[in-house]
Design goal:
Elements: H1 6-16, E1 21-28, E2 31-36, H2 37-53, E3 61-65, H3 70-81, E4 85-89, H4 95-105, E5 109-112, H5 118-121, E6 131-133, H6 145-151, E7 166-172, E8 180-185, H7 186-199, E9 207-210, H8 217-230, E10 233-236, H9 243-250, E11 254-257, H10 259-272, H11 275-281, H12 285-299, E12 306-309, H13 316-324, E13 329-333, E14 343-344, E15 357-358, E16 363-366, E17 371-375, E18 382-383, H14 387-392, E19 400-408, E20 414-419, E21 424-425, E22 431-432, H15 434-441, E23 447-453, E24 461-466, H16 468-473, H17 477-496, E25 507-510, H18 529-536, H19 540-545, E26 550-552
Helix pairs in contact: 1-2, 1-8, 2-3, 2-6, 7-8
């Protein structure tokens, strides 16, 4: 048969490679469960038969609420095989947002899997909504995946869906606002996935570790659609505490992450070997190769042949640092609305600071205001039950408005320079783009998070959160003074690269971290600017009154 949808590909591997291991899933306590293609599709067929037997309305929306596990992908396939549409929920959502999504999507059933802090989330799930408990889920009064599989005969034969059918609704609020339901068909998901595997020459022998939320388009595109399309082996992470062991178990050949985690990996290296010492050793010809191998092996990246970063801008200097270790960090650019398929850098064609050229089949141009406009094979069908909002996202000639400002070089490579709506105006009437300045602040080895703001003030200011190690050191007066001195020097170096109206009057060091849990980061670790500015904004005048370059708050 012609392979067009995820179901087509999954059933192809079921027949062609039945005994090959597809998923490796940690069960806790050092135990693992491996699933071959045949075993995986047998479970999918049995769950699909059960869903069909429930007699739900045709093409119902079915919610999928879990951290990444093998059964996340199997449940997704079962929903599709039964003729329905999946509605993923991030595993870190508040009860209020969970209820908003379930009610707006009119979900008829919810799969509940591996979750942390479920008691606080459960009130968001309507009492009457039917539930199915996935393996590794919290204890629930609901039918379990295993019991259903054991008591259901598999759905027989070749099951196909039109590629134009609605496959999933990905709810995303970005950095602000009420969640919006991004609708994708099998085609708008699978076409980018197929092109991704061709783009990088992915192989069935490749290995990936799945740990970024599958509820987000980025992981869904690279991992789920990638492995379904190419049939490579996927390992799942168990927890943050076992993350290094999880990576070393997988020995991934493909590894993608988000900028904040790439930075955390770097800070972990610096905690074991000071930055200056490492830099010196990397310049010594004979020693350099040994050090590079040791660092990459320590991170679990010694087998990686393709490493990528996406979801948010990454400092150019961080990419250069990984390149000095022999890891060519490739950057990608996209959004949920085009299933993360827009721009990518390719090995040997990297210009640091640029997210690469338009991918195969993608058209890109800039509006007169500098906004990046894109047409992609992954462009969404629209926002669920929001035709007016959908219309606002497109130009008259059908280009998606990304909301990002950018520049194109002579070779067509794109550089993201900030968000259209992130610009703020100082009291002097000058506009400031915060993202490039934040990337410069992040170059200090002790700075883990940074935000630049200052709407209505004569000059902007920066807020930073230090790494965990630096926060501990700051409890000692002498170490805090040393940190203050290095931050003052860093602020001076950053300001020296900026136009006068962009220069920061002060740098505020905050004691609390910005996290998904406290509502200051999105589920993909982007800054929630409005939330951060709202939380700290009232204190800004007092910070300016201190008349210090570095203020500890």
């Amino acid at each position: 048969m012609t392979l067009e949808t995820q179901l087509d590909y999954a059933q192809h591997w079921e027949k062609d490679r039945p005994n090959d291991v597809w998923f490796t899933q940690p069960l806790g306590g050092g135990k693992l469960r491996e699933l071959t293609f045949e075993q995986a599709l047998d479970e999918v067929r049995r769950m699909a038969a059960h869903l069909v037997g429930l007699g739900l309305p045709e093409k119902s929306n079915i919610a999928l609420f879990s951290k990444n596990t093998a059964w996340w992908i199997l449940a997704d396939l079962a929903i599709w095989m039964a003729g329905h549409t999946s509605v993923p929920l991030y595993p870190t959502l508040t009860a209020e947002t969970i209820r908003q999504i379930l009610e707006h999507s009119e979900a008829k059933l919810i799969f509940i899997g591996k979750l942390d802090g479920f008691p606080a989330m459960e009130p968001g799930i309507p009492q009457g909504l039917p539930r199915i408990s996935l393996p590794l889920s919290p204890k629930l009064d609901a039918p379990t995946w295993d019991s259903i599989i054991a008591s259901s005969a598999p759905l027989a034969g070749e099951v196909r869906r039109p590629k134009t059918d609605l496959a999933t609704i990905i709810y995303t609020s970005g950095s602000t606002g009420v969640p919006k339901g991004v609708m994708h068909s099998f085609q708008t998901m699978m076409s980018p996935g197929e092109r991704f595997t061709e783009y990088f020459g992915l192989r069935t022998s490749d290995r990936m570790l799945s740990y970024l939320p599958l509820a987000h388009a980025f992981e869904r595109y690279v991992v789920e659609t990638g492995t379904i399309g190419k049939g490579f082996h996927v390992f799942f992470a168990e927890s943050l505490d076992t993350f290094v062991e999880d990576i070393k178990r997988a020995r991934p050949t493909l590894f993608v992450s988000v900028p904040r985690l790439w930075q955390k990996f770097q800070l972990g290296v610096f905690s074991k070997m000071p930055e200056r010492k490492l830099g010196t050793l990397l310049k010594i010809p004979i020693v350099s190769g040994i050090i590079k191998k040791k660092v990459l092996s320590g991170l679990g990246f010694d087998q990686v042949r393709i490493a990528g970063s996406g979801s948010a801008p990454i400092p150019a200097e961080l990419i250069a640092w990984y390149r000095s270790l022999g890891l060519e960090l490739l950057e990608g650019y996209g959004m949920s609305e085009n299933f993360s398929y827009s721009h990518m850098t390719l090995p040997g064609d990297v210009r640091v600071g640029y997210v690469g050229k338009a991918c195969d089949g993608v058209e890109c141009k800039l509006s007169p205001e500098g906004e990046v406009l894109v047409k992609s094979p992954g462009t969404m069908l629209g926002y669920y039950k929001a035709p007016e909002l959908t219309a606002e996202m497109f130009t008259e000639d059908g280009f998606l408005k990304t909301g990002d400002r950018g520049e194109l070089d002579a070779d067509g490579r794109l550089k993201i320079t900030g968000r259209v709506k992130e610009l703020f105006k100082t009291s002097k009437g000058k506009y400031v783009a915060p993202a490039p300045i934040e990337n410069k602040l992040l170059l200090h080895s002790d700075v883990e998070q940074a935000l630049v703001t200052g709407n209505g003030f004569p000059q902007p200011y920066g807020m930073v959160v230090l790494s965990e190690q630096a926060r501990k050191r700051a409890s000692n007066a002498a170490d805090r003074q040393q940190l203050t001195s290095t931050l003052e020097s860093h602020l001076g170096e950053v300001n020296a690269t900026l136009d006068q109206h962009e220069q920061l009057d002060l740098l505020v060091v905050l004691s609390d971290e910005w996290t998904i849990e406290n509502g200051l980061l999105t589920p993909t670790m982007k800054l929630k600017r409005s939330a951060i500015e709202t939380k700290y904004g009232e204190r800004a005048p007092s910070w300016y009154e201190e008349k210090k370059a570095v203020v500890w708050a």
